[in-house]
Design goal:
single chain; 66 residues; mainly alpha; 56% helix
Length: 66
């Protein structure tokens, strides 16, 4: 049975936009995210970036429903 790759991008062309979105979210929560390796960040810092991204996506979806 073939193993799926959950990290595979469904739309590879969106990588640049997603990276920009991630950097904006990191800036908003005060995390010094840099291009490339970020293994020096704590789980809390990484989680706050991901949480901010989800928050912004939900807000965008809700605004589109109006």
């Amino acid at each position: 049975m073939a193993r799926s790759n959950s990290n595979r991008k469904l739309v590879p062309e969106a990588k640049e936009g997603l990276d920009k979105f991630k950097m904006e979210a990191a800036s908003e929560v005060g995390v010094n995210l840099k291009n490339g390796y970020n293994g020096d960040l704590t789980s809390r810092e990484n989680g706050s970036v991901g949480g901010q991204m989800v928050k912004k996506m939900v807000e965008s979806y809700e605004n589109n429903l109006k």
